[in-house]
Specification:
Number of helices: 10
Number of strands: 16
Structural class: alpha/beta
Order of helices and strands: EEEEEEHEHHEEHHEEEHHEEHEHEH
Strand content: 25-35%
Radius of gyration: 20 Å
Helix content: 25-40%
Distance between the termini: 10 Å
Oligomer: single chain
Length: about 325
């Protein structure tokens, strides 16, 4: 049985896949996707082949590429992301890298506020399930689809990973809060003995996109110009600690930390409101997602008596957990 854990984000496409009982295989790609006409041409060489190509509405699309390679491309930064051609192109890219003609079980997630609604989960399942013509000569069939709240993947990742037995016992039998800062939204779920408490779960839009925007503004204030959100995002995604602006090296750490001090606390203020009835007495707080480290300080402040764990290679934590779930 071949299982895929699929996490299509606004900044990264994360895929965890493999046959049940065998080792998991992972892949991370940038979340850029658009008509092939938007791709740049090399001088004297024309269009290259260093990208994944899929078919969307009978047209050739590049998928899983850096957004800044797509000329005139605008990010689909809204709640209906799953219904866009960009989302479908990234889904097809994931099917392509699976190297399979049949996916037996595909598990993916939705932001918590959408995952609470049966019709939203069913809409996404219907979109992903079935036979898909992803290139002129390649079809992939997805037999079954499971849709869960996004941060639940991180919970499953920890439960199935090699963690300290005492910590695992607390996670499985106590109260756990998973905080998942993504590019578009910050999601959180509260789980008691492995069961989700939706009244203490929710979504905030004070996410990495807002944090990067604030950092961009702070750089502008200090240097007279701004590098742009896409440039900062690319540096973060590729692990670079700096960018260049007018030939001068700008270290990002200070600006990201200052932005985080404001934005992460705004996001977790919403969490305080939703968790007021159940109290802030979490035994363990798990930080997942690509923005985990930027929300660490705010999590420590909010859950001062809880054990806080930032997951290893946290950008993949949800997709790995989805795979375990499948």
């Amino acid at each position: 049985m071949f299982v895929m854990g699929l996490d299509i984000g606004y900044s990264n496409l994360k895929v965890s896949m493999g046959t049940k009982g065998e080792d998991i295989r992972t892949k991370i790609l940038p979340a850029g996707a658009g008509n092939i006409d938007l791709m740049p041409r090399s001088v004297g060489a024309g269009l290259g082949t260093d990208f994944l190509q899929v078919i969307i509405n009978d047209q050739k699309w590049a998928a899983g590429v850096e957004p800044d390679r797509l000329q005139g491309w605008e990010r689909e930064l809204h709640k209906d992301y799953k219904s866009t051609d960009v989302y479908r192109a990234l889904f097809y890219a994931a099917l392509l890298v699976s190297e399979q003609s049949v996916i037996d079980v595909l598990v993916t997630g939705l932001p918590v506020d959408q995952a609470m609604k049966d019709e939203q989960r069913q809409e996404l399942a219907d979109l992903l399930k079935g036979e898909h013509q992803i290139t002129p000569k390649r079809k992939v069939t997805v037999k079954d689809v499971i849709v869960v709240p996004q941060p639940a993947g991180a919970y499953m990742d920890v439960v199935n990973s090699a963690v300290d037995d005492d910590v695992l016992d607390v996670i499985q039998n106590g109260k756990t809060v998973v905080i998942d800062p993504g590019y578009y939204s910050v999601d959180w779920v509260a789980l008691v003995e492995g069961e989700i408490h939706y009244r203490s779960s929710g979504t905030s839009l004070k996410a990495m996109s807002r944090l990067i925007q604030v950092a961009n503004e702070l750089i502008h204030d200090d240097n007279g110009a701004a590098p742009g959100i896409d440039k900062i995002e690319k540096a973060i995604r590729t692990g670079k600690s700096y960018i260049y602006l007018f030939g001068q090296k700008i270290e990002l750490k200070e600006y990201m930390e200052n932005a985080s001090n404001t934005v992460s606390r705004e996001a977790l203020t919403s969490m305080k409101k939703t968790m007021r009835d159940d109290g802030m007495d979490a035994d363990v707080v798990l930080l997942a997602g690509g923005g985990a480290s930027s929300y660490m300080a705010a999590a420590k402040e909010l859950f001062s008596k809880s054990r806080i764990i930032e997951l290893e290679n946290s950008v993949l934590s949800n997709s790995r957990g989805f795979w375990y779930c499948g």
